[in-house]
Amino acid sequence: MKSEAPTSNEIKESLPPDIVQTILPYLTSKDIKNLSLTNKYFNKLLDYSNSSILWHELFRKSFGNTYTNDEPFISKNSKRFQTCSETILLNTHPGIEWDKLYNLRKYRSAVFTWGCIKHGRLGYTISSNSRLSADSMNQLDRRITFGVCKPVEVPWMLYSVPISGRANSWDDDDTEEETNILGEYDRSIVQISGGGFSFQILTQSGKLYSTGATYHGGHNGPGPLAGEHDFQPIDETIRSLERSFPLVHGPFRVMGSIGDPIRIQNPHHTTNLTGTFQQHEDIYADLMKLSDISSKCLPGNDQVRRMLPKSIFNVKDPKDFDESMIDSVRFVAVSSGRSHFLALDDKNDLYSWDGREVNHGVKLIFNDLPMRSTNPILKISCGWNCNCIFIYGVGLVVWKSRDTTVGFDGFANAHYKVIPNTGEVNGANKIVDFACGSDNAVFYITNEGEKLWLYSNEIEKYIDLPIEGKMVKVQASNNTLAIFTSDTCYTVEIKDSEVAHNTLTKIEITPNVKIISLSFGDYHGIALSDTGDMYTWGLESEMCGCLGLGKPESIVSSGAGTFERARSIRVQRPTKVDIDGTCVAITAGGWQSGAIIIKD
Amino acid sequence: MAKFECTDEVTNFLTELPKCEHHLHLEGTLEPELLFQLVERNGVQLPGTFPKTVNELHVIYNNFADLQDFLNYYYIGCNVLLSEDDFFELAWSYFKRVSTQGLRHAEVFYDPQSHTSRGISLEVVTKGFERACAKAQEEFNISTKLIMCLLRHCPVEECMDTVKSAKSLIESGVIDGLGLDSSERPFPPELFVECYQLAKSYNKELQLTAHAGEEGDPSFVTNTLDLLETTRIDHGVRSIEDAELIKRLAAQKVMLTLCPLSNVKLQVVKDVSELPLQEFLDNDVPFSINSDDPAYFGGYILQNYLEVYSRFGWSKAVWAKIARQSIEGSWCDPKRKQELLSEVSEVVNKYVNLP
């Protein structure tokens, strides 16, 4: 049967502009681009050179992900929902259209880090980053560097030129214009998330990176239980490869008793080991290649490593590894705990990096919960040593351990619990926001907005705090909870999974500064205002520089802080950090801090 | 390969030069003679394929193929040690031997897990070594420190248990330091952070060190310093590959405990002359020269000094610098350091004719 192509008019009648606008949020950026190239009608409607609605939608899709705890849920009651970066850009760039704001966010933003510099956690070392000047470093008579005391840009891929020296991409014939939509997305950073010992950084292309030599700092996360170990595909491949050569044996293990012949079957044969080994040296070539791929760094920056899912290494023979698998998983959100992190991909699968031995993300399975196609994960949040996610129609799901992976597939069951009565999909009891603390403690608020709930030790209870106004957002760290109302925000300390009522503090900077995001490290806090200003306070331990307020002497001499113990500084009130730009995202790690900053 | 002749005067000078040893595994001082004595005394049955005589075993020791081959014999050797007296005797024969080689201070390693896994208690092993150390102080005026090492190829949980079982020994200061040895590459330092933190929590005075940068790349050294917070690196030869790390080692005076003959025997380098010793000196990275597992690697501390001399020559002033940095990097108290430093000056002054 021959089908006649519908005319533009027919399409316009069946899919009028208001319908198209309604479905835009459900399409990917790529779908929208494809649609715009379909015919004249769509091409005119989805006008990349003029349509502000389209660019606003693209902006939100690219930079306003609501999968992490940085933003509250979008719900019917949050009428004029805006992500933090939207709010900030509208306030700081009034009258600028969304196409320009999109380009600003995409091309003129960069990741800045400061604080403790140990094992490359800032994404650079003292000598690897030319942007690091002597006045940004806290040093002891130039011998020992404790940390970086001012925000410093992380060297990222092709941008050898610091952000301040870069061309504006929308008002000239920059070649970047060409690769605007479907081209290279690796340069554009969507999210940064601070863990105890590292940062996780997500690009617009869906690639996930982690800074430093180790994300876990040698501590175990909410992974396998003590004494259990994941199946390690690459190690197993090495072992089976070595086993195929009878005289060669793998990493030794002392076993047996005194004089047990098992311990050393034939010493004369083992003496010949090296000979056998060398004849077959090339058996390691494929393995070395696989090993290199599995620990890829950012081009030109060895301190930033690509994080990959374990499941892509599901080959018994390294020769069978398909290199294109590397880009088969596209991440859309990342959340970090003390020594672990979670990442969600565009298929709504969840991956966990959660222990000293976990170099690749383990895909988590939640047995007995409904399928993701009907009940997707809407938000992920890492606590100190546990995790909480919100699944549509199921509710809040918490866990702090999982099974080990057993085969080459890299999957494992999470040992989860569903918090009762959190699965409402509408009405007063619908969850508006939640925050994960430690040991499976979760704080959450509902649509009704008047009660703060705490789930801890498997019991839900409500906490009465003298807070004015409706609660709209909560954020937590190991020892601090932040509560946002429609007008202001509060912090309160958490001790042993309980709220210390007498520590409730209203965060007040000046009357005209409105805080829209908070993040906490081990001993410091960072606040982001709706005008893109950043404020820090708390304890800067051991001259680590995590407050970003400059050298200790100048912090003290300016009156902002006081010395505490030998080499620590206490800043009581939130103090503005000098950033020379507009900050659109903040994150506090253990002893370090990070931000995404736009420079016009 | 030797380029410089160890004349009698040089040999005498290097023998008299006060030396500190920081990298010596007591289990690695088990000479074939003592091994066969203990076999007989303890009625241990060796595997049928194991050499039957002292001479045959010496031949094997002279011809290890690689680290694995060495370790196979090393662990069989450990099996003959059963009683407190055995451990005492092992350490005592080491001290007797080096007392004639100008050794003044020794910080010695032992691997409790090689013995506890055979059912011998940590206390028995430690007590035997502790007695020998006390006797070395008394009879030879050799000061000592005892360093308990964790075997990194063992499961981390087991290493944690070892640390826990050593709690009272760490608190009382019988164990002065914590170390980490065995196969490096598959077992990076980050696996042992909690072990180190726990041990340090028992006693703030506990000194920390770890093997790193022998087989592993420089990041193993950096991570050992950052994550395990050690103040010393055992081996660390491969640090030379990272210029930033070299600057850091020099600035923070992190001493590398190098083992020239061991590196050759285990094929880290083909010849002692290939070691970056001159580079370390030029960059002010402190190091000491040590024997590692001398019974197996063909030479105690003096032999290591002589081998290095034969490849590098070096004047009296350079040797004095090495002796001084070995003393400075030791964990003994300032008074002892001062004693040893003045002994260095005396010896240097005594050999007026030596260039």
Automatic annotation (TrEMBL), chain A:
RCC repeats lie at residues 532-599. Residues 9-58 form the F-box domain. This is KLLA0F01969p. GO terms for cellular component: cytoplasm. InterPro entries: F-box-like_dom_sf, F-box_dom, Ran_GTPase-activating, RCC1/BLIP-II, Reg_chr_condens. It comes from the Eukaryota. PANTHER family: REGULATOR OF CHROMOSOME CONDENSATION, SCF-ASSOCIATED FACTOR 1. It comes from Kluyveromyces lactis (strain ATCC 8585 / CBS 2359 / DSM 70799 / NBRC 1267 / NRRL Y-1140 / WM37). PROSITE patterns: FBOX (PS50181), RCC1_3 (PS50012). Coiled coil: none annotated. GO terms for molecular function: guanyl-nucleotide exchange factor activity.
